[in-house]
Amino acid sequence: MSITIHTEPLSYTKFRGFIISSANWFAPSLLQMPNLDEWILKMYHNGSIYYAISGPNIISLIVGYYNREERFLYIPYVCVHPDYQGHGISQKIINYIIEHLSTDIQEILLEVRKDNNNALQAYHKMGFYETEDRDEKYLMKKEIHKS
């Protein structure tokens, strides 16, 4: 399986299309969000977009907000196509982010649903740990150590 990681701009149509097509891969579905279109637009305009491609298809997408002042990256959206889950794709993208931002950030933060056992296991394997209990979610952190 040949997978490449990209950071070059994606058209809004492709970005939104992936998020909408992936909406039901989440529990609860993203389609239940009251301001879904505003959320997508905000991520597109304000976030850093990292994605993986296999053949012509986007198979994973991660959006991060970089806080230069406090030197962290907050990731509000991580999605891997179900056919590619369990192959370490999100780990490859996060490693790519660390490699390219390690001099600029000290930590990565993300939220994950408490009932998403596969994601929790994957994030623990990557070195993330729970820092805050937020009702149905955990805030997780990975500290970036300079080499």
Task: Explain what the structure shows.
With 147 residues, the chain is α+β, with helices and mostly antiparallel strands. The protein has a single domain, classed as 3-Layer(aba) Sandwich (Aminopeptidase), CATH 3.40.630. It is 30% helix and 34% strand. It is built from four helices and seven strands, in the order E-H-H-E-E-E-H-E-H-E-E. It has a seven-stranded mixed β-sheet, sandwiched between helices. Helix 1 crosses helix 2. It is globular, with a radius of gyration of 15 Å. The mean pLDDT is 93.
Overall average pLDDT = 93
- Poorly predicted ranges: none
Give the C-alpha Rg: 15 Å
Strand share of the residues? 25-35%
Spatial order of the strands in the main sheet? 1-2-3-4-5-7-6
What is the CATH first-level class name? Alpha Beta
Could you give the count of β-strands? 7
Helix and strand content put the structural class at alpha+beta
From the spread of the alpha carbons, the general shape counts as: globular
Q: Total number of helical segments? A: 4
Q: TL;DR of this structure?
A:
With 147 residues, the chain is an alpha+beta fold.
SSE order and pairing:
Blueprint: E1 4-6, H1 12-22, H2 36-46, E2 48-54, E3 57-67, E4 72-80, H3 89-101, E5 107-113, H4 117-125, E6 129-134, E7 137-143
Parallel strand pairs: 4-5
Antiparallel strand pairs: 1-2, 2-3, 3-4, 5-7, 6-7
Helix pairs in contact: 1-2
Q: Which terms summarize this structure?
A:
seven-stranded mixed β-sheet, single chain, alpha+beta, 147 residues, Acyl_CoA_acyltransferase, transferase, 34% strand, GNAT family N-acetyltransferase, Aminopeptidase
